[in-house]
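Summary for the steering committee. One of the milestones for this cycle was to obtain a three-dimensional model of the protein with adenosine monophosphate bound, which we needed before selecting residues for the alanine scan. The sequence and ligand used are listed below.
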Amino acid sequence: MKILVINAGSSSIKYQLIDMTTELPLSSGIVERIGLEEGTLTHKTFIDGIENKVSETFPIPNHTVGLERVAELLTDKKIGVITDPSEIQAVGHRLVHGGEAFTKTILITNDVKAKVKELFPLAPLHNPANLTGVEVAEKVFSHASQIGVFDTAFHQTMPEVAFRYAIPNEMYEKMGIRKYGFHGTSHKYVSEKANEYLGKKETNIITIHIGNGASIAAVKNGACVDTSMGLGPLNGLIMGTRSGDIDPSIIFYLVEQKGYSIEEVSNVLNKKSGMVGLTGNFDMRDIQKHLLNGDVNAELSYKMYAYRIKQYIGNYTAAMNGLDAIIFTAGIGENDSLVRKLVCENMEFFGIEIDKEKNAARSKDIREINSEAAKTKILVIPTNEELEIARQTFELLK
Ligand code: AMP
């Protein structure tokens, strides 16, 4: 079976065509700058291990035009990887917010679309774009089943004691204000890989997904019991441009005493805080360069970044009353050995002790970087959200 995985944003569509017999991509790409004067399409194919890349610039007024061009490239006589769009039996869609309505992967029907629409207020930046992706794929790949994989679904196993906020009950009951969590597809994928690696299912695992967005999850016996993002993706760890945890009084102070509008506060906390607020850069590679050149600000921000993760490790070890492994994943978790070192420093109490050389080594596979004697495993596991979406799509249709 061939499955197309789509992640539609407001002005972009990321996609990957995966052959489920090998679980390898046949093609992947991104349509960007949809709706602007000139759009771009970067399309890669992987045939017999050889990668080919095509880049195009042309007006892409809407998502339909972009996805139709992707379908043409996938079936192109010269560079195509399939002969007809009908070879794609299913399209797996990344859908960000499933609220409490969606606890697992689902076949997208009109009812499902209506429910996703109802959830727009909970994810105003993501759900509308995701739904556009679905509607466009229904037109362009009309033979295919459309399947929705929600970012929030994996976290729906959290107990009430973890997902409720101590605010008036009716705000939960009538307005749905609670912790939902995000990056669920990634936390699920790497925690399952970790369990396979450890050779057991009864485990206490902490998954640390640190990319441009970042979240951490406590996974007990394969089920999520707590996570750091909340109603929206602003809470928890320090991120590229988002603040993570702050005292909510800061918001009132800015609005009431300093004359900020609520839009300005939202912009500051979502786009101008985190590492970019602390250092002027959001990419850890740039910040690390400054740190190595002796920039004290860069050093402080790295320490703050790691300190927040340490705090959550303590928090979740307590929640699970145990810790078998911590998992580093996503752009920073997989590549930034300095962050891993700082997180694992002075954590012997938790059985965490890193091996310097193993931490510095590089690999695209799962690897163990703890010292021989350490009680807790430290694993680096490359995430693969597209494959996880394809797998869940495949499982649903089997
Ligand atoms: P992601 O959102 O998972 O794609 O992660 C993107 C982020 O990973 C970038 O913004 C960088 O901060 C970080 N990153 C990627 N490669 C490296 C690297 N080699 N060293 C440090 N950070 C990296």
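Key point for the committee: The mean pLDDT is 97.
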